[in-house]
Amino acid sequence: MDPIFSLGIQSLWDELRHMPAGGVWWINADREEDAISLVNQTIASQSENAKVAVAGMGYDLRNILQLEPDHGPQKIYLFSMPNHEKGLYFFSRDILCTIEPENYLLILLCANNAWKNIPAANLHRWLIQNHEWTKYHKCTLLVINPANNSDRQSSVLIGKYRSLFGLASLRYASGTHLYDVAWWCNDRGVSAQQQLILEQQDGRWQLAKQEEASVQPRSDEKRVLSNVDVLEGAPALSEHWTLFETNEAMFNEARTSQAATLIFALRQNNQIETIARQIHTLRRQRGSALKIIVRETRASLRATDERLLLRCGANMVISWNAPLSRCLTLIESVQGQQFKRLVPEDISTLLSMTLPLKLRGFQTWSTFCEAVGNMVNNTLLPPDGKGVLVALRPVPGIRVEQALTLCRPNRVGDIVTIGDNRLLMFLSFCRVNDLDTALNHIFPLPTADIFSNRMVWFEDNQIAAELVLLREVGPDKWGAPLTGTSDEKKIINAEHDGQTWRRIPEPLRLLSEDRGSAS
């Protein structure tokens, strides 16, 4: 009979603890000390006659393993691995040089963030190879991976249930240890989407006393978790609503949800990437029954930002100008929905598709042309939706360098240059029908008072054709900002609050005249 090994978490039921021979199990840990502690407790949980081998990646195992005299196997093989990617690829081959792994529990303690810079495709190949290897040699491989971004690692592995028999995360948040099981398959069946609270007593991991011994959680389909700003000051609408002061607090609570409605509040453009990562984590780890909504409380979303949130797993994005009554109607409309769209396992793929241009503000003529050309030629971006190219000619009496001092692009991806007596702007992912709104955000004065002529290109072939002409403009016609205007706050002492431009008050100190010296 093939042996069945146990995970080192006391009082955990067998469905989430057993690891039969012939498979790979993976646990991510936020903290290195928790990973080491789990290794020690797993060793102590094995029987006296169990065959156990531990491989430490970049660790001196003799210094970190704390064996108990009255628990655990009589003999343990220790292996040292270099903290290098190649050490992982030769792991199974090196094990065979020393022991015959049949009926062994092999524990691989990875170095901190060992898989961070390893491509997901390489990780997947490694899993397939070791899955076949453990199946052939009838042994169990437990990978314990300490990493400060366990959510990203779990998202990469969440769909690899054919190569992994178990995937879980041990997270530390606000003084509490959370054990989040994506799935766990063994002789007792399959358990999935479990989140349990753990505690350490006398150095041993065990379930907290308040945890119920139920394998599957109850349904939470009627529950609504929302940022408090979504209701615009109104109280919770019913006993099913729970309000949170921040998106982060709501995200942490939502990690236990199965089918609840989650509503994020978006106030500023710089929150988009954080919210996108949170949505991606929830959708990848908690499944398709969640209803995830983003409500924009101030005008800050571009078309590409909304596309990013939807591709990360949001069911709906509600615009800032929708009244509260309309917002509640839209929230009600997603009830009972199942999310059907494919969410990529690595969010960096989505970010590279929607945020490829990292420049902002004034650029030299050549840099401007190169950046716009890269955008137009990017095949990952939607056709004819990459942005708008605008050429503005100042009114008589205003030099183009002076017009540049009034230009304040405030979003990454909006770039500007001057030359040939024109001010050229490229507004990335801006729709042509939103051009006037964008220009009103960029210039504090009406553009009709500053510029006499405007030309616009928004289709890919139009922009590409104009770029050919722009590259023919010689350096003698290129322009540069006026001296002393490199600092944006020196260009114009104003800021845009999302609706109108407002002057920034400058403190002035009045000096009293010395009457004695004046006389």
Automatic annotation (TrEMBL):
It comes from the Bacteria. InterPro entries: BcsE (IPR017745). NCBIfam families: cellulose_bcsE, PRK15045.1. This is Cellulose biosynthesis protein BcsE. It comes from Phytobacter palmae. The gene is bcsE.
